[in-house]
Amino acid sequence: MDQLAHATDKIANHREIGLTDRPGARSHREDASLLNSRDSGDERTQGFERRGDKEKLRNRRGPNDDTLVAYCEVTPLALDEDDSVRRSEPPTELVGGDEAPDATTEDEDRPGRHQKVIILSAQIVQAVFQPSLLQLMVGRRRRDQIERPLRELLDPGVELVEAEVRSIDPTARRVETTVGVFAGDALVVALGAEPDRDAVPGYREAALDFFSPEGAAACARALEGFRGGRVVVTVAALPYKCPAAPYEAALLLDDELRRRGLRERSEIEVYSPEPAPMPVAGPVMGAAVVGLLEAKGIRFHPGSRVERFEPGSHEVVLTDGSRVGYDLLAGVPPHRAPAVVRGSSLAGDTGSIPVDRATLETHHERVYAVGDTTTITLANGKPLPRAGIFAHRQGLVVAHRIAATFAGQPAQDEFGGGGYCWVETGGGRAAFAVGEFFAEPDPTLSLRAPGRSWHAGKVLFERSWIGGRIERRLARACLALGSRLVGVKATI
Ligand SMILES: Cc1cc2nc3c(=O)[nH]c(=O)nc-3n(C[C@H](O)[C@H](O)[C@H](O)COP(=O)(O)OP(=O)(O)OC[C@H]3O[C@@H](n4cnc5c(N)ncnc54)[C@H](O)[C@@H]3O)c2cc1C
Asked: In sequence order, what DSSP letters do the residues of 249-274 get, joined into one string?
């Protein structure tokens, strides 16, 4: 799912909830280990009002006075609205939705009616909450529980345009799309990272690719017919998004096989080119995750580079010549920047977009990039992992900066590199990692031991993103309360 899909909604309403700085705040009783611990640092909330900002944002004017422009997440681009000049074919059929009144009509009554936030997305039909692909792959979720039409997730006043972006001209803050040309006073590129399933021969045919809804559902179907055997989770090549995903997948597969009474007849192994799980987090975190795997009898094979997959013989051939047989193969595909990003002048050496790590601005003024499409190098030389939690926070920072700029105020919000993630361990439990990735010389992270309450938090997190409207609100309220109780700063 496009992790940024709520950020526009939340330009106004988001709150940084943090009790680690509250006198007397206690850590959760399930906290078991603190790895590389360090103070978490301050979340930034200054410079933006906490309430009523939605109205203010809508009514602010952009530098061109008549044209708002604001912010676009999920996919790219924020633009102004001058249909007659800049947009060749207005995609009127795509505006609004059941829970989103026609933005144009609503805006007619507003003083700043030319202000507009437009999202261009190639995936309007269904937004997918990607972390729950892991639950889908073991049959614990149906697709309709983790997908929702993107338009239902947006705030009234946000226009959604179904379009594929064909080219980006950052100098003019202009994009060409399948439905016309758009230009804006600010441009936000949030195109994610795309799976490159043909990068390693045979991957597409061999693997149950749980990084897609189709692949995750196929994995669940394969499990239905599975009678025990060798289960292999493989990272086909680097880089990939969500560093915990292959390890969570192995732990959830273990849990599911136990539930079905097949675990004793099965082996589970994880093969990855990485030297340790989640290497950006350092060796202590890696060892902790290996410990979680070993506790379930899951073997981890670091430094395993795949040369090719042989679906016919059910084997993975590694670059050292060894062959790994499997009965069920769950795969993590390699990733790369989308072609339109790679082909733009925004792209750096890796094809992703280098940005100022605090402001998310590219080397073009008022052109920003957030999320998986960016590359941010940490003090230890490793890249910031690709994760939705960062995409979300970065989207908020960019939204605030654009709003401040248009209001003629200094833009103060900065991305501080804080983040957290759940590691589902099965049995209704999850571990929880929280850390500061901009810490020097290495990120500082703590890992909370697996517990039911962390898993409950993950479920709430899922519902806060992809549930129905009321469900989302309730889940956010519970998350806000829960994060206070456990002393974790959360962006709600
Ligand atoms: C199995 C799995 C588990 C995960 N678990 C977690 C987790 O627990 N915690 C966490 O923080 N993160 C997790 N992630 C990662 C998280 O989902 C991503 O980091 C996040 O979605 C990135 O957001 P984004 O907006 O940058 O990119 P995306 O969400 O990928 O959105 C990019 C959008 O741009 C669209 N697009 C691309 N090219 C074009 C074009 N040319 N024109 C128009 N539209 C285009 C795409 O279709 C897509 O809709 C997980 C991911 C997976 C696959």
From this structure: HHHHHHHHHHHTT-GGG-EEEEE-SS
